[in-house]
Design brief:
UDP N-Acetylglucosamine Acyltransferase, domain 1, 218 residues, single chain, 23% strand, seven-stranded mixed β-sheet
Length: 218
């Protein structure tokens, strides 16, 4: 989602990928080949933000700049950097080829020098995750490989419409203690027929008994 702030609005290169739930607000520039993943929040408040070519901003990372009449803290992410999930980077300079690990915090005015890792990452990380041989430029190579993979993978993403849910069957109204119980459906005609047969049989039995009694008296 791209949001204008005042007279400033995000400028995203046509080759970059921005996930639909990422938010870019204000004076934000995303250069070619970048990938901005789900939940990332990139907010320029009084100073610009620049994300260099082939960089990756991962899920739920927060990038922000700030500035007023006295102090300015622009945020610059160099080319071929990876900003890990949940990282917080504010008003800093991240030079090219850096890897900012998950949940790392970098504050206003700080500088991360070229080809540096910030955060808890073991020595075999880039070999295990990206299948890359170690070297001074391994972070940059990881960013370029990963951004290319992400742009290709998400190129055909589309929102899937939800299947309409069937409405729940209405519940019968609750009856109070004063209300009579609901009437039961009874087939009245069948009940009457049974009663008539029983009465007729009783009448015939009485008549037969009277006839026998009269015959015995003769």
């Amino acid at each position: 989602m791209l949001i204008s702030s005042g007279t400033k609005k995000p400028n995203v290169h046509a080759s970059a990928y921005v996930a639909p739930t990422a938010v870019l607000s204000g004076d934000v520039t995303v250069e070619e080949g970048c990938a901005i993943l789900y939940g990332a929040a990139i907010t320029a408040e009084g100073a610009p933000i620049t994300i260099g070519a082939n960089s990756v901003v991962m899920e739920n990372a927060v990038l922000r700049s700030s500035g007023g009449g006295v102090m300015q803290f622009p945020l610059s992410i160099g080319e071929s950097c990876i900003i890990g999930p949940g990282a917080y980077v504010a008003g800093a300079t991240i030079e090219p080829g850096c890897f900012i690990a998950a949940r790392s915090v970098i504050r206003n005015g700080e500088t991360v020098t070229e080809n540096t890792t910030v955060g808890d990452v073991n020595d075999a990380f880039f070999a295990d995750v990206f299948n890359l041989e170690d070297g001074p430029d391994v972070r940059a190579r990881a960013a370029e490989t990963y951004s290319k993979f992400l742009r290709k993978t998400h190129a055909q993403d589309a929102v899937v419409p939800e299947t309409p849910k069937k409405p729940a069957a209405p519940k019968p109204p609750k009856r109070t203690a004063e209300e009579p119980p609901p009437a039961q459906n009874v087939e009245v005609e069948k009940v009457v027929d049974v009663m008539f047969v029983e009465l007729e049989e009783a009448r015939l039995r009485r008549e037969a008994a009277i006839a026998r009694e009269k015959k015995g008296k003769k």
